[in-house]
């Protein structure tokens, strides 16, 4: 059986790619998340380690972290992929990108450097339909960061069909593939339990809105 590492942001696209890879017959083995240079939250979505660990626990999988600035991101990514190849019986790396060619090229490059095959299960899917498919397949995701076109009022809101319609009426991409918003998956049919979080406060940095989340113990 082909075992995979999942490039795990904690958001809807990586989670749906994870699910799709399982449907294709691949076996999930380990999650990989890149933290910022301070190691206190994820590089892409601004999610803290305790929440990412809670997701990994809900998936019953180990999660591997490393910290990086943007300048040495690629070198560190390859180094950590090679380490994970030594530690786990993985043959493939799963990514959640949809249609940005430069992202795919990079993912294939770093995967090949570690003798892994890159798999992009969402590739070339219709952006809006992919979000609706995620919702229909039982993925529950909340908005954890967004640009000023959306604004801080959207932070903490659950992604559903009606919010997608709202996004489109505002001229915002349904999937947020252009960076309009990022999400945190709090539940899915393949989670052992729902991740309980609360928005403690909202902040803005570089014209981008962030929700600081706290983990609520069940």
TrEMBL record:
Span of domain Diphthamide synthase: 8-212
Keyword Ligase: yes
Alphabetical list of CDD domains matching this protein: AANH_PF0828-like
Record keyword Cell inner membrane present: no
InterPro entries, per the entry: Diphthami_syn_dom, DPH6/MJ0570, Rossmann-like_a/b/a_fold
A GO molecular-function annotation: diphthine-ammonia ligase activity
EC number assigned by the record: 6.3.1.14
Superkingdom, natural source: Bacteria
Keywords: Ligase
PANTHER family, per database record: DIPHTHINE--AMMONIA LIGASE, DOMAIN OF UNKNOWN FUNCTION 71 DUF71 -CONTAINING PROTEIN
Protein name, per record: Diphthine--ammonia ligase
Species: Flavivirga algicola
UniProt lineage: Bacteria, Pseudomonadati, Bacteroidota, Flavobacteriia, Flavobacteriales
């Amino acid at each position: 059986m082909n075992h995979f590492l999942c490039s795990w942001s904690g958001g809807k696209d990586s989670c749906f790619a994870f699910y799709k890879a399982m449907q294709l017959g691949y076996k999930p083995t380990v999650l990989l998340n890149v933290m910022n240079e301070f190691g206190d939250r994820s590089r892409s979505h601004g999610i803290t380690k305790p929440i990412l660990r809670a997701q990994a626990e809900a998936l019953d999988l180990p999660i591997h972290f490393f910290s990086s600035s943007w300048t040495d991101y690629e070198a560190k990514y390859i180094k950590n992929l090679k380490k994970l190849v030594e530690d786990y019986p993985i043959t493939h790396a799963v990514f959640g990108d949809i249609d940005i060619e430069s992202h795919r090229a990079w993912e294939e490059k770093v995967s090949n450097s570690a003798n892994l095959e890159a798999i992009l299960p969402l590739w070339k899917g219709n952006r809006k339909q992919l979000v609706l498919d995620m919702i229909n397949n039982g993925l529950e995701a909340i908005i954890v960061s967004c640009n000023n076109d959306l604004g801080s009022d959207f932070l903490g809101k659950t992604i559903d069909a009606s919010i997608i319609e709202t996004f489109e009426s505002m001229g915002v991409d349904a999937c947020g593939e252009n960076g309009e918003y990022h999400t945190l998956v709090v539940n899915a049919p393949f989670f052992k339990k729902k991740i309980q979080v609360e928005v403690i406060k909202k902040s803005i940095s570089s014209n981008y809105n962030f929700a600081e989340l706290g983990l609520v113990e069940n």
